Amino acid sequence: MAAVLNSVRAFFTPQTFHIEAENPGDVVARENLLDRAMGPGRRRKSSEKLRKGRIPADGLALVARDNDGHVIGTVRLWNVEAGVTPEGLPLPALLLGPLAVDSLHEGKGIGAALMRAAISEAANRGHGAVLLVGDAPYYERFGFFAAKTQHLVMPGPFERHRFLALELKDGWLDGAAGMLVASGRKLSY
Questions:
Q1: Which residues are CB-neighbours of 182 under 8 A, at least 6 positions away?
Q2: Which CATH superfamily is domain 15-182 in?
Q3: Rounded Cα distance, 161 and 134, in Å
Q4: Does the pLDDT at position 10 exceed 70?
Q5: What is the pLDDT of residue 110?
Q6: Strand 90-96 vs strand 129-133: parallel, antiparallel, or unpaired?
Q7: Residue 107 scores a pLDDT above 80
Q8: What values do phi and psi take at 187, rounded to 5?
Q9: Residue 14: pLDDT band by 50, 70, 90 thresholds?
Q10: Quick check: 103 and 37 in contact, CB under 8 A?
Q11: Contact, 179 vs 152, CB < 8 A?
């Protein structure tokens, strides 16, 4: 009975977007969306220093598309080293960002769906933690908190209370300290 009820709800609830892997044809649409959503200063952020000249982590560049196939949302995750472990070893992690949704499509749950998809895919791929710089009230509902980043720093200015982490594996960030460093594959020109 529950399956029938869910299929009836699905029938009456129109799907206004879907999420899939980003493809090379999405570059212009993604960059235009990010420029509109983040403004002209988006390339000066500390997070950008970790992304510049790098390729997103394998399988972790996602877009939301409307029913006509237009990119209306984006999220990407990047390989970083989250400082070092207490033993002095580099600690692999992911840096999430930017997350953006076209202003014409805000309030439809697209950002939340992109977050859930990104977190799920990162966990499925065996990653230990995801870090980001963002608004705590928004990201806390996905399990991101500042407590796990207290001994980590970004390369450049950042607001401590906005530097958040989610452990995908319990205890992954225990004892981690130091500066985030880019570790992903370099972009070939």
A1: 49, 50, 51, 52, 54, 78, 79, 80
A2: Gcn5-related N-acetyltransferase (GNAT) (3.40.630.30)
A3: 9
A4: no
A5: 97
A6: parallel
A7: yes
A8: -70, 130
A9: low
A10: yes
A11: yes
167: amino acid identity, one letter: E
pLDDT for position 146: 97
Q: Which amino acid is at 91?
A: L
**Global pTM?**
0.89
How far apart, in whole angstroms, are the C-alpha atoms of residue 122 and residue 85? 21
- DSSP calls for 101-169: E-GGGTTSSHHHHHHHHHHHHHHHTT--EEEEES-HHHHGGGT-BSGGGTTEE-SS---GGGEEEEESS
Q: Which residues contact 48 (CB under 8 A, 6 or more apart)?
A: 42
54 pLDDT higher than 90: yes
Query: What is the mean predicted confidence (pLDDT) over 3-16?
Result: 47
